[in-house]
Design brief:
Blueprint lengths: L12 E5 L9 E3 L2 E8 L1 E5 L4 E5 L2 E5 L3 E8 L4 E7 L1 H8 L4 H9 L2 E3 L2 H18 L7 H18 L1 H11 L2 H16 L6 H8 L3 H11 L5 H17 L6 H7 L5 H12 L3 H9 L1
Antiparallel strand pairs: 1-8, 2-7, 3-6, 3-8, 4-5, 4-7, 6-9
Helix pairs in contact: 1-4, 3-4, 6-8, 9-11, 10-11
Length: 278
Protein backbone atom coordinates (compact mmCIF):
# COMPACT_ATOMS: atom_id res chain seq x y z
CA UNK A 1 0.00 0.00 0.00
CA UNK A 2 1.25 3.46 -0.87
CA UNK A 3 0.80 5.24 2.48
CA UNK A 4 1.30 8.66 0.89
CA UNK A 5 -2.14 8.23 -0.69
CA UNK A 6 -3.78 8.48 2.71
CA UNK A 7 -3.12 12.19 3.15
CA UNK A 8 -3.83 13.23 -0.45
CA UNK A 9 -6.46 10.88 -1.86
CA UNK A 10 -8.31 12.50 -4.77
CA UNK A 11 -10.22 9.55 -6.23
CA UNK A 12 -11.60 6.20 -5.11
CA UNK A 13 -8.75 3.71 -4.77
CA UNK A 14 -8.74 -0.11 -4.63
CA UNK A 15 -6.18 -2.11 -2.61
CA UNK A 16 -5.69 -5.71 -1.58
CA UNK A 17 -3.04 -7.36 0.56
CA UNK A 18 -1.96 -8.27 4.09
CA UNK A 19 -1.82 -4.74 5.64
CA UNK A 20 1.71 -5.36 6.89
CA UNK A 21 2.41 -1.65 6.30
CA UNK A 22 0.16 -0.98 9.31
CA UNK A 23 1.94 -3.40 11.66
CA UNK A 24 4.66 -1.19 13.16
CA UNK A 25 2.73 1.88 14.26
CA UNK A 26 -0.72 3.53 13.88
CA UNK A 27 -1.44 5.15 10.53
CA UNK A 28 -4.10 7.81 9.95
CA UNK A 29 -6.47 7.26 7.04
CA UNK A 30 -7.71 10.73 6.08
CA UNK A 31 -10.40 9.15 3.93
CA UNK A 32 -13.26 6.67 4.08
CA UNK A 33 -12.19 3.04 4.49
CA UNK A 34 -14.17 -0.06 3.51
CA UNK A 35 -12.26 -3.24 4.32
CA UNK A 36 -13.21 -6.88 3.73
CA UNK A 37 -11.27 -9.74 5.32
CA UNK A 38 -11.05 -12.45 2.65
CA UNK A 39 -8.73 -14.90 4.41
CA UNK A 40 -7.22 -15.60 7.82
CA UNK A 41 -7.65 -13.47 10.95
CA UNK A 42 -6.36 -10.10 12.08
CA UNK A 43 -6.68 -7.68 14.97
CA UNK A 44 -7.09 -4.02 13.96
CA UNK A 45 -6.68 -1.26 16.54
CA UNK A 46 -8.03 2.27 16.14
CA UNK A 47 -6.52 3.43 19.42
CA UNK A 48 -8.94 2.65 22.23
CA UNK A 49 -10.91 0.11 20.18
CA UNK A 50 -9.89 -3.20 18.67
CA UNK A 51 -11.68 -5.21 15.99
CA UNK A 52 -11.12 -8.94 15.50
CA UNK A 53 -11.49 -9.65 11.79
CA UNK A 54 -11.92 -13.07 10.24
CA UNK A 55 -13.05 -14.24 6.83
CA UNK A 56 -16.35 -12.53 5.88
CA UNK A 57 -15.79 -9.59 8.27
CA UNK A 58 -16.29 -6.05 7.00
CA UNK A 59 -14.96 -2.89 8.67
CA UNK A 60 -16.12 0.57 7.57
CA UNK A 61 -14.99 4.03 8.69
CA UNK A 62 -16.68 6.65 6.52
CA UNK A 63 -14.97 9.60 8.20
CA UNK A 64 -11.45 8.19 8.33
CA UNK A 65 -9.67 6.55 11.24
CA UNK A 66 -6.40 5.63 12.87
CA UNK A 67 -5.59 2.00 12.09
CA UNK A 68 -2.86 -0.37 13.24
CA UNK A 69 -2.50 -4.09 12.59
CA UNK A 70 -1.82 -5.57 16.03
CA UNK A 71 -1.91 -9.27 15.15
CA UNK A 72 -2.45 -11.31 12.00
CA UNK A 73 -2.35 -14.92 10.90
CA UNK A 74 0.12 -15.80 8.13
CA UNK A 75 -2.72 -16.05 5.61
CA UNK A 76 -4.45 -12.77 6.57
CA UNK A 77 -5.68 -10.94 3.45
CA UNK A 78 -8.05 -8.04 2.82
CA UNK A 79 -9.72 -6.18 -0.02
CA UNK A 80 -10.17 -2.47 0.51
CA UNK A 81 -11.73 0.59 -1.10
CA UNK A 82 -10.60 4.05 -0.01
CA UNK A 83 -12.97 7.01 -0.53
CA UNK A 84 -11.96 10.70 -0.65
CA UNK A 85 -13.99 12.67 1.89
CA UNK A 86 -15.24 14.99 -0.86
CA UNK A 87 -16.80 12.09 -2.77
CA UNK A 88 -18.33 10.64 0.37
CA UNK A 89 -19.90 13.95 1.41
CA UNK A 90 -21.41 14.40 -2.06
CA UNK A 91 -22.81 10.86 -2.02
CA UNK A 92 -24.20 11.20 1.50
CA UNK A 93 -26.17 14.43 1.00
CA UNK A 94 -29.43 12.76 -0.02
CA UNK A 95 -29.22 9.83 2.42
CA UNK A 96 -30.71 9.39 5.89
CA UNK A 97 -28.19 10.21 8.62
CA UNK A 98 -29.82 7.61 10.91
CA UNK A 99 -27.99 4.86 9.04
CA UNK A 100 -24.66 6.68 9.17
CA UNK A 101 -25.07 7.06 12.93
CA UNK A 102 -25.68 3.32 13.23
CA UNK A 103 -22.60 2.48 11.17
CA UNK A 104 -20.43 4.90 13.16
CA UNK A 105 -21.45 3.11 16.35
CA UNK A 106 -21.12 -0.35 14.73
CA UNK A 107 -18.27 -0.17 12.17
CA UNK A 108 -17.73 -3.95 12.01
CA UNK A 109 -20.17 -6.36 10.38
CA UNK A 110 -19.74 -10.14 10.12
CA UNK A 111 -21.44 -11.31 6.95
CA UNK A 112 -23.37 -14.45 6.19
CA UNK A 113 -22.89 -16.22 2.85
CA UNK A 114 -25.50 -14.28 0.87
CA UNK A 115 -24.53 -10.79 2.01
CA UNK A 116 -20.82 -11.69 1.70
CA UNK A 117 -21.32 -12.66 -1.95
CA UNK A 118 -23.21 -9.44 -2.62
CA UNK A 119 -20.74 -7.08 -0.95
CA UNK A 120 -17.90 -8.70 -2.88
CA UNK A 121 -19.79 -8.00 -6.11
CA UNK A 122 -19.73 -4.32 -5.17
CA UNK A 123 -16.00 -4.50 -4.39
CA UNK A 124 -15.43 -6.33 -7.71
CA UNK A 125 -17.17 -3.46 -9.47
CA UNK A 126 -15.07 -0.95 -7.54
CA UNK A 127 -11.90 -2.82 -8.52
CA UNK A 128 -12.92 -2.79 -12.17
CA UNK A 129 -13.82 0.91 -12.19
CA UNK A 130 -11.05 2.35 -10.05
CA UNK A 131 -7.88 0.47 -11.01
CA UNK A 132 -7.93 2.06 -14.45
CA UNK A 133 -6.69 5.58 -15.33
CA UNK A 134 -9.28 8.28 -14.70
CA UNK A 135 -11.76 8.72 -17.53
CA UNK A 136 -13.85 11.65 -18.74
CA UNK A 137 -16.71 10.37 -16.60
CA UNK A 138 -14.53 9.53 -13.57
CA UNK A 139 -16.16 11.88 -11.06
CA UNK A 140 -19.68 10.90 -12.13
CA UNK A 141 -18.81 7.18 -11.91
CA UNK A 142 -17.35 7.63 -8.42
CA UNK A 143 -20.44 9.43 -7.17
CA UNK A 144 -22.89 6.99 -8.79
CA UNK A 145 -20.94 3.98 -7.52
CA UNK A 146 -20.74 5.20 -3.93
CA UNK A 147 -24.36 6.35 -3.80
CA UNK A 148 -25.54 3.03 -5.23
CA UNK A 149 -23.47 1.01 -2.79
CA UNK A 150 -24.56 3.12 0.19
CA UNK A 151 -28.21 2.67 -0.74
CA UNK A 152 -27.64 -1.08 -1.03
CA UNK A 153 -25.88 -1.20 2.36
CA UNK A 154 -28.61 0.84 4.01
CA UNK A 155 -31.33 -1.35 2.50
CA UNK A 156 -29.78 -4.26 4.43
CA UNK A 157 -29.54 -2.37 7.74
CA UNK A 158 -33.12 -1.94 9.08
CA UNK A 159 -33.68 -5.51 10.32
CA UNK A 160 -30.16 -5.67 11.69
CA UNK A 161 -30.49 -2.23 13.25
CA UNK A 162 -33.77 -3.08 14.93
CA UNK A 163 -32.53 -6.37 16.35
CA UNK A 164 -29.26 -4.86 17.59
CA UNK A 165 -30.92 -1.75 19.01
CA UNK A 166 -33.51 -3.82 20.84
CA UNK A 167 -30.86 -6.07 22.35
CA UNK A 168 -28.73 -3.19 23.73
CA UNK A 169 -29.31 -2.01 27.27
CA UNK A 170 -29.20 1.72 27.93
CA UNK A 171 -25.71 1.30 29.42
CA UNK A 172 -24.49 -0.47 26.29
CA UNK A 173 -25.88 2.31 24.12
CA UNK A 174 -24.08 4.89 26.24
CA UNK A 175 -20.84 2.90 26.00
CA UNK A 176 -21.04 2.75 22.18
CA UNK A 177 -21.69 6.50 22.01
CA UNK A 178 -18.79 7.15 24.39
CA UNK A 179 -16.39 5.11 22.23
CA UNK A 180 -17.49 7.04 19.16
CA UNK A 181 -16.90 10.35 20.98
CA UNK A 182 -13.44 9.22 22.07
CA UNK A 183 -12.59 8.27 18.50
CA UNK A 184 -13.62 11.75 17.33
CA UNK A 185 -12.32 13.99 20.13
CA UNK A 186 -9.54 12.34 22.17
CA UNK A 187 -6.75 14.23 20.39
CA UNK A 188 -8.04 17.52 21.82
CA UNK A 189 -10.38 16.65 24.71
CA UNK A 190 -8.59 14.72 27.45
CA UNK A 191 -10.91 15.13 30.42
CA UNK A 192 -13.57 12.65 31.50
CA UNK A 193 -15.92 15.53 32.30
CA UNK A 194 -16.18 16.50 28.61
CA UNK A 195 -17.50 13.06 27.60
CA UNK A 196 -19.83 12.82 30.58
CA UNK A 197 -21.31 16.21 29.66
CA UNK A 198 -21.79 15.16 26.03
CA UNK A 199 -23.67 12.06 27.23
CA UNK A 200 -25.63 13.96 29.91
CA UNK A 201 -24.46 11.68 32.73
CA UNK A 202 -22.08 12.01 35.66
CA UNK A 203 -18.37 11.13 35.32
CA UNK A 204 -18.81 8.46 38.00
CA UNK A 205 -21.68 6.79 36.14
CA UNK A 206 -19.71 6.91 32.88
CA UNK A 207 -16.75 5.27 34.60
CA UNK A 208 -18.99 2.49 35.94
CA UNK A 209 -20.23 1.85 32.40
CA UNK A 210 -16.79 1.83 30.77
CA UNK A 211 -15.38 -0.54 33.39
CA UNK A 212 -18.31 -2.89 32.82
CA UNK A 213 -18.10 -3.01 29.01
CA UNK A 214 -14.35 -2.60 28.40
CA UNK A 215 -13.01 -5.39 30.56
CA UNK A 216 -12.26 -3.20 33.56
CA UNK A 217 -10.67 -0.17 31.89
CA UNK A 218 -11.47 3.22 33.39
CA UNK A 219 -12.87 6.06 31.30
CA UNK A 220 -9.58 7.94 31.61
CA UNK A 221 -7.58 4.88 30.52
CA UNK A 222 -9.65 4.59 27.32
CA UNK A 223 -9.22 8.30 26.54
CA UNK A 224 -5.47 8.03 27.14
CA UNK A 225 -5.18 4.95 24.87
CA UNK A 226 -6.78 6.83 22.00
CA UNK A 227 -4.74 9.96 22.69
CA UNK A 228 -1.51 7.92 22.74
CA UNK A 229 -2.35 6.46 19.32
CA UNK A 230 -3.06 9.97 17.98
CA UNK A 231 0.33 11.20 19.25
CA UNK A 232 2.11 8.21 17.66
CA UNK A 233 0.60 9.09 14.28
CA UNK A 234 1.81 12.68 14.57
CA UNK A 235 5.29 11.57 15.66
CA UNK A 236 5.56 9.66 12.40
CA UNK A 237 5.53 13.00 10.60
CA UNK A 238 9.15 14.29 10.81
CA UNK A 239 8.02 17.75 9.73
CA UNK A 240 6.28 18.26 13.09
CA UNK A 241 8.29 19.25 16.16
CA UNK A 242 7.41 17.87 19.59
CA UNK A 243 6.22 21.37 20.55
CA UNK A 244 3.92 21.51 17.51
CA UNK A 245 2.47 18.09 18.36
CA UNK A 246 1.87 19.23 21.94
CA UNK A 247 -0.06 22.24 20.65
CA UNK A 248 -2.06 20.16 18.15
CA UNK A 249 -3.11 17.76 20.92
CA UNK A 250 -3.90 20.52 23.43
CA UNK A 251 -1.13 19.74 25.91
CA UNK A 252 0.09 22.73 27.98
CA UNK A 253 3.65 22.28 26.65
CA UNK A 254 6.05 19.72 25.19
CA UNK A 255 7.33 18.57 28.59
CA UNK A 256 3.76 17.70 29.63
CA UNK A 257 3.34 15.74 26.40
CA UNK A 258 6.64 13.92 27.01
CA UNK A 259 5.61 12.87 30.52
CA UNK A 260 2.23 11.65 29.28
CA UNK A 261 3.74 9.71 26.37
CA UNK A 262 6.47 8.06 28.44
CA UNK A 263 3.95 7.05 31.10
CA UNK A 264 1.82 5.30 28.47
CA UNK A 265 4.51 3.81 26.21
CA UNK A 266 7.70 3.61 28.28
CA UNK A 267 9.44 5.82 25.70
CA UNK A 268 9.92 9.53 25.30
CA UNK A 269 8.55 11.03 22.07
CA UNK A 270 12.14 11.43 20.81
CA UNK A 271 12.98 7.78 21.60
CA UNK A 272 9.81 6.61 19.85
CA UNK A 273 10.65 8.67 16.77
CA UNK A 274 14.21 7.33 16.66
CA UNK A 275 13.01 3.72 16.85
CA UNK A 276 10.57 4.26 14.00
CA UNK A 277 13.33 5.67 11.80
CA UNK A 278 15.70 2.72 12.33
Amino acid sequence: MNLSLLSSLHEIHYEEGSLQELASTPVYFNCGVQLLCTCGEGLISTGAQQFHLRKMSELIFWGGSIMQLMEASDDFQVRMLLYPKKVFLQAAIALDTTYFNYMEESPQYNHEEKSWKNVNLWIDLGEMLFTQPSSTFGERMELNFLQGMLMWIFSTIPDTYISVAQSYTRKQQIFHKFMYLVHEHAAQMHQVSFYAEQLCISPRYLNDITETYSGGKTTKAIIDEQLTAEVKVLLNNPALSIAEIATACHFPDSSYLSRFFKKNTGLSPKEFRTRQQT
